[in-house]
Design goal:
With 249 residues, this protein is α/β, with parallel strands linked by helices. It contains seven helices and six strands. It has one domain: Decaprenyl diphosphate synthase-like (Undecaprenyl pyrophosphate synthetase). Strands 3-4-2-1-5-6 form a six-stranded parallel sheet, with helices on both faces. The longest helix has 25 residues. The structure holds 3-methylbut-3-enyl trihydrogen diphosphate (IPE) (2 copies) and magnesium ion.
Length: 249
């Protein structure tokens, strides 16, 4: 039982922790600009962003959120200078090594969404080990999108389904939305209810295009390293003030 669930009546603009969205997804953007404003190298922004991720993931677990999905590295981010890409990968490695050490205590489940094959063997093995340990835990599931691209995800699902059809295991004419879902990296995970993008950009940048078909969107100018529990609460309260109709009345 979460500490946050037993609160009394809520004031305007406050979060009602008894009716949180099941799944929140965040595009962790703005690290580079955060660093630039401070006259620091972009990598310092990524390091600060990793700390924010730790704070927000812990907070999501504490308030009893079921799923948090974060965009850590896109299929397009390889276009960046090699030094920046390798600094991001090093940070990930460092984070995972620390996380594995603390998993017993934190009991946060982690899963990776994306094509991990181009990553270093070491990082790939760390991701798999983290997922394996996670199977022992229940509670908040944190999905880390790593070398993730929404279009890439759909293409690989289409390839798998086409192969099953060619092998005579399926009939193309009877494929359903559920069949596609079952072949996405996110198979088994409910769609995000709320997608948050900090840093002032108003786009998806190839993040969960299939899954966010009916998501609510929240944009803020705050840069990811400055994103706080308070910012998340603002987004949650805003989400709770909306009316979702899913095409109905
Ligand atoms: C997000 O921050 C982190 C990654 C894409 C890996 P950025 O590095 O994109 O920061 P800005 O957008 O340049 O400020
Ligand atoms: C999206 O941010 C990817 C991640 C946050 C990991 P980008 O910074 O790569 O997106 P664009 O280039 O501004 O669209
Ligand atoms: Mg960016």
């Amino acid at each position: 039982m979460s500490l946050f669930k037993s609160r009394g009546t809520k004031r305007d603009g406050e979060v009602d922790f008894s009716r949180l969205p099941r799944h929140v997804a965040i595009i962790m953007d703005g690290n580079g600009r955060w660093a630039k404003r401070r006259g620091l190298p972009r990598t310092a922004g990524h390091a600060a962003g990793a700390e924010t991720f730790r704070t927000i993931a812990t907070y999501c677990k504490d308030i009893g959120l079921e799923y948090l999905t974060v965009y850590a590295f896109s299929t397009e981010n390889w276009k960046r200078p090699a030094e920046e890409v390798s600094a991001i990968m090093d940070l990930l490695k460092k984070y995972l090594l620390e996380a594995i050490g603390k998993m017993e205590r934190d009991r946060v489940k982690m899963k990776f969404l994306g094509d991990l094959s181009p990553l270093s063997k070491e990082l790939c093995a760390l991701c798999r080990k983290t997922e394996e340990i996670s199977t022992h835990y229940e509670g908040c599931q944190v999905n880390i999108c790593l070398n993730y691209g929404g279009r890439d995800e759909i293409v690989q699902a289409v390839r798998a389904l086409a192969a099953e059809c060619a092998a005579g295991q399926r009939n193309a004419a009877s494929l359903t939305e559920e069949d596609v879902c079952a072949h996405l990296y996110s198979a088994g995970i409910p769609d995000p209810d709320l997608v948050i993008r900090p840093s002032g950009e108003l786009r998806l940048s190839n993040f969960l295009p299939w899954q966010s078909a009916y998501a609510e969107f929240y944009f803020t100018d705050v840069l990811w390293p400055d994103f706080s529990k308070r910012e998340l609460n603002r987004a949650l309260a805003d989400f709770q003030s909306r009316s979702r109709r899913f095409g109905g009345v």
